[in-house]
Amino acid sequence: AQSVTQLGSHVSVSEGALVLLRCNYSSSVPPYLFWYVQYPNQGLQLLLKYTTGATLVKGINGFEAEFKKSETSFHLTKPSAHMSDAAEYFCAVSDGAGGSYIPTFGRGTSLIVHP
Amino acid sequence: GAVVSQHPSRVICKSGTSVKIECRSLDFQATTMFWYRQFPKQSLMLMATSNEGSKATYEQGVEKDKFLINHASLTLSTLTVTSAHPEDSSFYICSARSAEGYTFGSGTRLTVV
Question: What is the mean pLDDT of residues A32-55?
Fold first, then answer.
């Protein structure tokens, strides 16, 4: 079984400030981990993913995430927020090699960016 | 990269009618596609797994007679909401697995009036 917990349904930051979106997971096998972004009335776009290897993963739009096995975490960060980063962010976990299992999504975190 | 096209993006229908949503993989073949439902401000709920040439696999609690899924080719899966009611109003998203991982369609906003 696998599950994802995203701490905080809303995160509010000022433009230019650090963005930190928290994600903790539970998985019975080594996980594959994902972060997706969703803009209003649109589908999900993959930001980044961790499968194996380097635990610090860099994605699109300046985002990165670090896989910490001891903490079962995969927090998403960005050094400097832009207004265009305002969106819904979903963390997801998948069991199995090659992403062969369907990802389970967290409840999502809404990122609000203030000018 | 892999692209999944979903149509329509928005649809309004009258209660009691049926609505068909299409999901196409544009530049890859997808033997398996997935249908999700998303309630406002909530996560994605997997409704069913669509398998090319065979019956779909529905998640627990999803009415298979209400949500008909057809996956007749390697690039097309359809979801038909039959006898739609206002409580079926939601955002529906399809996904397909490619060599790059899971790719999502842009979603369909269904409003039943």
Answer: 90
